[in-house]
Design goal:
The chain has one helix and eight strands; from the N terminus they run αββββββββ. By secondary structure, it is mainly beta. A four-stranded antiparallel sheet has the order 1-8-3-6, with no helix packed on it. It is elongated and about 65 Å long.
């Protein structure tokens, strides 16, 4: 092989190492040591698993500028009657977050039911706009198993 052929190969390998490593030579075949000899090889490196990251904390959803918080609850698990929304609020935003395996349901009695599927280890954000028009007082409650953690905010 002439120098002209080797030089481009070396240049190519040098440029390729910028983005990907060139292939190294295969490791040498280990040589058997005579009986009774001690090895001078370094001890094997032990690896430990990195601790799992802490799950993100579930918090009450934030609110948009210019809106007013009417009700909020959580974070908590299981079912709960959150409170009442008096008449006079025609447009409502229901902001809900949940985590945990199971079904959660937001109930605004007497008219509205919103079912959701919550997932294990994932915070599911939910946002619904309700145009209610003339109505009576609404009672807000959450139906959820103890396996579901949730937080709620209702704004207008």
């Amino acid at each position: 092989m002439s120098i002209r052929r080797v030089a481009p190969l070396l240049v190519f390998c040098g440029l390729a190492s910028i983005t990907v490593a060139c292939t190294a030579a295969p490791p040498a075949v280990p040589v058997a040591e005579p009986r009774g000899a001690t090895s001078s090889a370094a001890p094997a490196e032990t690896t430990t698993a990195a601790p799992a990251p802490e799950p993100q904390r579930l918090r009450v959803p934030g609110m948009e500028a210019g809106t007013k918080s009417i009700l909020k609850a959580g974070p908590r698990t299981g079912s709960m009657v959150v409170g009442e929304i008096p008449p006079g609020k025609k447009e409502l935003w229901v902001l809900f977050r949940c985590r945990g395996q199971g079904q959660a349901e937001i109930i605004l009695e007497p008219d509205v039911t919103m079912p959701f599927t919550c997932l294990d280890d994932v915070i599911s954000p939910i946002m619904n706009r309700l145009d209610l028009g003339a109505r009576k007082t609404l009672t807000v409650q959450i139906q959820a198993p103890d396996s579901v953690e949730w937080a709620l905010r209702v704004t207008s």
